[in-house]
């Protein structure tokens, strides 16, 4: 239950971030706007592709999380991640100094952007599905934070489920953006984007609390030495 609540809250609260990061793509989707039905179907294809990418990424992080759990250091990783998230918000200049500039990553990122450009001019549900897949691979602080969250649950299935629920939490916003694109003003987008730092700090605090084993239901459940949640019982 804790996984479900954490992932949905992270997705829903963090979806304001999507307005600034994914908004331009969502507004430019090559939707068939001849009717509300065709427009809705197109948006569903796009979001299915996007969430599918999240699930795959969550499963991959789950593999690493399982190794960390077996090593008995998952709770320390949780605290470290929380601190780094908060530092990245409070001291963004420090983050820029250590920014990741690996040439292979940059090459991959350019490949994703080129493919996005090609499919943004093709009006078909297949292109919308591919746009969703590619959108999920773009650099995004919120998605990276969610991926770190999926890591902390220490299994492939939990990692995949966490990212699926995270994607589900972002779905209302990512459905509304392209559907009501003509009704969303620039000022509203700016106001929603300004909420991003506060949301990230909140997530950072939650990661720290999770690692501290404070026995707070859903927020900081007691963890065993291998990082799994201790089940309370009564006799």
Topology:
Blueprint: H1 2-21, H2 23-27, H3 36-71, H4 74-90, H5 92-97, H6 103-119, H7 125-135, H8 141-151, H9 156-179, H10 186-193, H11 196-212
> How many β-strands, per DSSP?
0
Count every helix, treating DSSP H or I runs of 4 or more residues as helices: 11
Structural category is: mainly alpha
Helix content: over 70%
The rounded distance between the terminal residues' Cα atoms is 23 Å
Helix-strand pattern: HHHHHHHHHHH
Number of domains: 1
Mean pLDDT: 81
Cα shape: globular
Main beta sheet strand tally, sense and closure: none
Global Rg: 19 Å
User: Which quaternary structure do these chains form?
Assistant: single chain
Question: What is the strand content?
Answer: under 5%
**Low-pLDDT stretches:** none
């Amino acid at each position: 239950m804790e996984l479900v609540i954490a992932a949905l809250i992270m997705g829903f609260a963090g979806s304001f971030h999507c307005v600034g990061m994914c908004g331009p793509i969502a507004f430019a989707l090559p939707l068939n706007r001849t009717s509300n039905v065709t427009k809705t179907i197109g948006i569903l294809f796009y979001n299915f592709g996007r969430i599918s990418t999240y699930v795959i990424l969550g499963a991959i992080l789950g593999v690493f999380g399982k190794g960390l759990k077996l090593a008995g250091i998952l709770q320390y990783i949780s605290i470290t991640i929380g601190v780094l998230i908060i530092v990245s918000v409070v001291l963004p200049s420090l983050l820029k100094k250590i920014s990741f500039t690996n040439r292979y990553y940059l090459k991959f990122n350019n490949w994703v952007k080129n493919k996005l450009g090609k499919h943004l001019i093709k009006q078909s549900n297949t292109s919308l599905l591919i746009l969703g897949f590619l959108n999920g691979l773009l650099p995004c602080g919120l998605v990276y934070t969610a991926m770190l969250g999926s890591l902390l649950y220490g299994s492939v299935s939990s990692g995949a489920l966490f990212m699926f629920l995270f994607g589900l939490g972002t779905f209302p916003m990512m459905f509304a953006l392209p559907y009501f694109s003509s009704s969303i003003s620039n000022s509203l987008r700016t106001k929603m984007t300004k909420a991003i730092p506060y949301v990230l700090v909140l997530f950072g605090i939650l990661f720290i609390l999770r690692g501290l084993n404070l026995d707070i239901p859903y927020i900081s459940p007691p963890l065993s030495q291998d990082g799994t949640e201790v089940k309370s019982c009564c006799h």
